[in-house]
Amino acid sequence: MGRLNHVDLPGLIGREPLGFLATMGLEAQLLHQVYLSWDPADGHAILHSERYATIADVVAELKDALATVKSGQAIPGIKGFPIPRNRGMADPLRIRSDEYRKVRARQERSGSYYWFDSVVTDRAVDANGFCVLNPLVGIRGRQTAGSFWYYPMMEVKRDPERLLTEALTGWRRVAGAEGWLLDHRATYSFEPALRGPGGSMAVPGATWLATLALQRFRYRRRNGVETGRPVLPNGWFRVADRDVFAWPIWTTPISGTCLDAVWNVGWGYDAWKFTANPDGSIRAEMTRTHGISAPNNIDHVVDLNILDLYGAARSTQGVLTPVAMRTRRVPGKFREYDAWKGWDWKYPPVPDYPGKYGHG
């Protein structure tokens, strides 16, 4: 493995929900291996990769991915999701519990079940009796769930080179561009009859990338199974009377496989604990290293050097809005394993990389 290129993405600030989600969507769309970290000074994303040497390289691959989206599709490389809506019919992702298995079986045959499982769960229903949707899906009025992916994609297709470059380098807000309730600085229409986009002053490239992050924050079978656990996807936590999306930023370069371990540890093993303060802010507690297991060695962890935890919640109007959060490091319940010493701190040697679990 040669020396990795270090590509700064100053437009993607991980301390804000849209910037973080856009980075997760970006990582999911890149076909070649990348490792992700964050700048400790201002929190912008950094890609470490052999394949991508410049922002132009990254934009070129995103444009190629966008070009693969055919008529009737919305997500690069995915056929059958979101489920197309026939004219005059109800939203096909608003599913009753007794319909869930049949719909999921069709998604499995089309190869898009992974996305379906990220967005819809049959383990809880909403006030209208429909299977719950991932709380990152921001729709209102009479918008369908599929609109959440379709319209941001179409917006970026108008000028992909410029809009994607701006998303990665420096945001420029666009009049008439919809933020899909992921951008707390954009404006929105809340007309009950709203069908298509109804907002302005969003960042089209960042919004599109953020919608592609949902596959990272999927529902897992253990979520909501244990007594007292609400049915929430990865990244979401019940704090007092509201659901909070929480995420870390870190300085150790890690891959997408390793990112899955971060969410599994944070959610599944209670490594992150949150308490609501009377002023609406949140106290967060995190174990000392919040590491993941080192490859083939149960006695060590890889310390990700997490800088801090951040949070956001849906406002009364549904906009994903930052929540003030203070993080405290605490000892774990069990023996604290030592951080693994297998890093050279320039780039992770592939055969020893923890995100690959020793399989290079």
Q: Which oligomeric state applies?
A: single chain
SS strand fraction: 15-25%
Q: What value does the average pLDDT take?
A: 85
Total DSSP helices: 8
Low-confidence stretches: 341-360
Secondary-structure element series: EHEEHHHEEHHEEHEEHEEEEEEEE
Structural class: alpha+beta
What is the helix fraction of residues, given as a range?
A: 10-25%
Distance between the termini: 10 Å
Largest sheet: 4 strands, antiparallel
Order of strands, widest sheet: 8-9-14-15
Total count of strands: 17
CA-atom Rg in angstroms: 20 Å
Descriptive keywords:
3-stranded antiparallel sheet, alpha+beta, single chain, 25% helix, 360 residues, disordered C terminus
Secondary structure topology:
Blueprint: E1 5-13, H1 17-29, E2 35-38, E3 44-49, H2 55-67, H3 97-110, H4 113-119, E4 120-125, E5 131-133, H5 147-157, H6 160-169, E6 187-188, E7 199-200, H7 204-211, E8 236-239, E9 242-250, H8 256-268, E10 272-276, E11 282-287, E12 292-294, E13 297-302, E14 306-314, E15 320-323, E16 325-330, E17 338-339
Parallel strand pairs: 11-16, 13-17
Antiparallel strand pairs: 1-3, 2-3, 4-5, 6-7, 8-9, 9-14, 10-11, 12-13, 14-15
Helix pairs in contact: 1-7, 2-6, 3-4, 5-7
